[in-house]
Design a protein that fits this description.
Strand content: 25-35%
Number of strands: 12
Organism: Alteromonas sediminis
CATH topology of the largest domain: Thrombin, subunit H
Distance between the termini: 66 Å
Largest sheet: 6 strands, antiparallel, barrel
Pfam families: Trypsin_2 (PF13365)
Mean pLDDT: 83
Low-confidence stretches: 9-13, 15-27, 173-177, 227-237
Helix content: 10-25%
CATH class of the largest domain: Mainly Beta
Number of helices: 4
GO biological process, one term: proteolysis
CATH architecture of the largest domain: Beta Barrel
Protein name: Serine protease
Shape: globular
InterPro entries: Chloro_Bact_Ser_Proteases, Peptidase_S1_PA, Peptidase_S1_PA_chymotrypsin
Structural class: alpha+beta
CATH superfamily of the largest domain: Trypsin-like serine proteases
Radius of gyration: 21 Å
């Protein structure tokens, strides 16, 4: 009788283990599929000076939206004025490895306060879908894809997984008053809420889409990485403190400029 119950227990335990392992495999497969779905829409943002350099200088990351001819990135990625005494323009770099396509782009809209810019391309790429404007709960699993070290060795997008660690005002204190910029002062007076992420981003991730691990829909955009010392040291000694602007701010800027997301 004891042997019968033991075999029955072992059988049920084995079934339970199979169900748990199957569930874990299903979740893993889902995240892998989501990353594959998102990656073709993620691009590098560069600046090209054809009379001086053959290649392009990579400034940050971006992602295609709308009808595929628009790219969202950070304002600080494209904030430097283009040269007026020589041919120079922004380019969107898509592809993988050494097989890179350069697409000419122009800045269409900017939101310096929330660090967002929208570029218009001469071509189209697979666009990402936007998630609801409702703020995510703390603990929600997210991922972001971008180019943390630029494109020195070619275009190799990297994906980092994490979660929403906190929802906090968009106002990081400066070490002293001399370091406060006009935009920082505006944010201190009327701070909006941003995501603090439990995931490590690097300077090259600026403009990376933050998306739901299950659906691939964009929930925000990486815009700040706390750096201890220099930009270079962030690669070898990251703080692990990263921030993202919620998708609501992207939608708002797009709506003002008649970009249908």
């Amino acid at each position: 009788m004891v042997s019968h119950y033991k075999r029955k227990f072992e059988a049920r335990f084995l079934i339970l283990c199979c169900l748990v392992l199957g569930s874990i495999h299903s979740v893993h497969a889902s995240v892998v599929d989501t990353i594959k779905q998102v990656t073709p829409s993620v691009v590098a943002i560069g600046i090209k000076t054809p009379l001086q350099y053959q290649g392009s200088k990579v400034l940050g990351t971006g992602f295609a939206v709308g009808d595929g001819s628009y790219v969202v990135t950070n304002y600080h990625v494209v904030s430097e004025p283009l040269a007026v005494d020589i041919v120079q323009f922004y380019v969107v770099l898509s592809g993988t490895g050494q097989e890179v396509n350069e697409i000419k782009a122009e800045v269409l809209a900017i939101d310096p306060i929330h660090d967002i810019a929208i570029l218009k391309m001469d071509s189209e790429l697979p666009p990402l879908k936007m998630a609801s404007s409702t703020l995510l709960d703390v603990g929600t699993d997210i991922a972001f894809t971008g180019f943390p070290i630029g494109a020195v060795l070619g275009l190799y997008p990297a994906t980092h997984k994490g979660s929403i660690a906190a929802i906090t005002p968009d106002a990081i204190p400066a070490q002293n008053a001399d370091l406060l910029t006009l935009n920082m002062l505006k944010r201190l007076k009327q701070p909006s809420l941003i995501y603090q992420l439990d995931a490590t981003a690097f300077p090259g991730n600026s403009g990376s889409p933050v998306y739901d691990q299950k659906t691939g829909k964009v929930v925000g955009i990486i815009n700040k990485v706390i750096v201890k010392d220099t930009k270079e040291s962030a690669l070898s000694n990251p703080t692990g403190i990263s921030y993202a602007v919620p998708v609501e701010k992207i939608k708002s800027l797009a709506q003002k400029h008649n970009v249908d997301l």
